[in-house]
Request: fold
Amino acid sequence: MPDQGMAEDMHSLVEHRLRRIDQRYTSGRRAIVDLLVTAGHPVSIGDIAERLPDLPRSSAYRHLTDLHAAGLVRRVAANDEFTRFELAEDLTEHHHHLLCVNCGKVIDVTLPSGAEQQVTSVISQLADTAGFQPHSHRLDVLGLCSACA
Ligand SMILES: [Zn+2]
Ligand SMILES: [Zn+2]
Reply:
């Protein structure tokens, strides 16, 4: 869990980004950002409802949509049935996901730096061939978790 100072930096950054799209950092949005920071893994609407029982699901969806529009939150999903949400990578760190197609479990994985460099270099070669400028990449692995295999 990040220390208090880091969390405060994060909240001012979130507030700033929301202001850029004329949105306020309301207590409901802050509660969701707090949850995403402390959860340490992508969360579903069901997880949010469990952790924030006073927040109606419709409001949770609306807050997530606004945070997504501000580039603060991204969707992680094996399929439409199992959408989860996490903080954008520029607020956390670059990583990949192992997604279970059966139960929706998501495991965050960070590649060893050598492997990450290799992935990046293969991607820039592919992009180069297409005259494309890569800014970042997403690599999610679909399969079965240990409980479902
Ligand atoms: Zn599973
Ligand atoms: Zn990567």
Summary: Residues 94, 96, 111, 116, 119, 137, 139 surround zinc ion (ligand 2) (CB under 6 Å).
